[in-house]
Amino acid sequence: HENTGLQSHLPPEEQNYGATAAHVRQGPFVSVSRAAAAKSEYLIAAVLCYANLINFMDWFIVPGILLDIQKYFKLSDGGTGLLHTVFILCYMLAAPIFGYLGDRYNRKIILGAGIFFWSSVTLGSSFINELYYWLFFLLRGLVGIGTASYSTIAPTIIADLFEEGKRTTMLSIFYIFIPVGSGLGYVLAAGMADVTGDWHWAFRVTPCMGGVALVLLILLVPHRTQRRTAAHRALSISGTIRVAAEKPGVQRTAKTTWCQDVISLAKNWSFVWSSLGLTAMAFVTGALGMWVPVFLYRAQVVQGIVPPCLHETCNSSNSLIFGGITTGTGILGVIAGAEAARRLRKINNKADPLICATSMFISALCLYIALVVAQTNILSTFIFIALGELFLSVNWAVVTDILLYVVTPRRQSTAIALQILVSHLLGDAGSPYLIGTISNAIQDKNAHSFQWSFWSLQYSFIVCAFIGVCGGAFFLLTSFYIEEDRKEAGR
């Protein structure tokens, strides 16, 4: 290898509309070793997907039993919305820290510590009585810190394990567990509250599942996972990465400060506009995830379908149904988005942001229709909420894939952390509290009644339809820059 130039190992790259992929001519022995390595890569990805499932189940336990928690701690709509805001604020503030650490230190240790921390704190929150509501708020904030370590780092490990074609597929599978975990969080919370008659038990299941995830992480995930560009992946296959790094014309990856990384990302307009589009998605999904079961309950009370929840344990059927809707539409949406992106990339270089823009516009329309028909037809409300969530879910994997091919690999953890910070700071960190605060303001100006309790949430949710339209506009702006930024990241 010492007398062989770098170009003899790297044929011309075939650029697709995902990350740049370098293909290498492999001998029979290398093929066998790669086949064995591929099994290990899929196993690691499976562990990460399982942990992602638990992560988002834990996120949505509170919305699944929100009526019980609101009644138990005697919270107003604004105070109830603040509960999720505290969680998201801690999550987003911790994300850049873990992004910095993930780009520079051992990612397996960071992931394991995060899983152990959030599992322990979730278990602790199940033993709080009504006199210490502030402690419940505090522990939910600490759970947000623990989950930030996972959401920031896990996608970059998957990106390093798989090449362009498989990477999009594996990221799609990984992100399917966001809506699946979210939906199962509703189902778990409502189911445990119904079975035990005590909502506290809902917080005692995911810690056990987190313990299993931690054991699997320790046993199956390598202590170190390589951070490699596409060219480095190709060179490592042929066993020449060490020599190639010493050859003239091959640049070493320079270490940069976090501030330099942030400045570079701020100049990447595809990253900026797609992050703002994701922020709009987060705003809508955060508000819906927190308030839809309560909104449906109030609509049913107004229509006379269910009695008011005054003394006994509240009916959790809406949480169960909404959890099923979230799970089903999430799976269909992520698969449909990935497949649409795969097909349309072949005919349109700007397919990814255009798919995201279209789905946001359609989702906003469906949510608006759901609000309009809620007082008269509860079945139609469920249908249009399901359609709205379906089109929102189309974007999850596509937005992440955009980030991974417009940002260089050495900045990806930082980019994901910044995207988490911005999308949650301006998105779902404030949307549940904003919806609750607007609802409170409307109720305060009118006579206290179940009718105005419903109308107040209905009027508040109009904000979500408007923000959804803004998100579609941000993704349209992304399409103007996507080609040039992809090429720049490749260079």
From TrEMBL:
Any Pfam family: MFS_1
Sequence ranges assigned to domain Major facilitator superfamily (MFS) profile in this UniProt record: 44-483
One of the record's GO molecular function terms: transmembrane transporter activity
Keywords recorded for this protein, A-Z: Membrane, Transmembrane, Transmembrane helix, Transport
InterPro entries membership: MFS, MFS_dom, MFS_spinster-like, MFS_trans_sf
Localization in the cell: Membrane
Superkingdom of origin: Eukaryota
PROSITE patterns: MFS
Signal peptide (residue range): none
Membrane topology: Multi-pass membrane protein
Gene3D superfamilies in UniProt: MFS general substrate transporter like domains
TM stretches of this protein: 42-62, 82-102, 109-128, 134-158, 170-189, 201-221, 271-292, 320-341, 353-373, 379-404, 416-439, 459-482
Keyword Isomerase appears in the UniProt entry: no
GO cellular component, one term: membrane
SUPFAM superfamilies found in the cross-reference section: MFS general substrate transporter
Family membership: Belongs to the major facilitator superfamily. Spinster (TC 2.A.1.49) family.
UniProt protein name: SPNS3 protein
Organism expressing this protein natively: Smutsornis africanus
Organismal lineage: Eukaryota, Metazoa, Chordata, Craniata, Vertebrata
Gene name per UniProt: Spns3
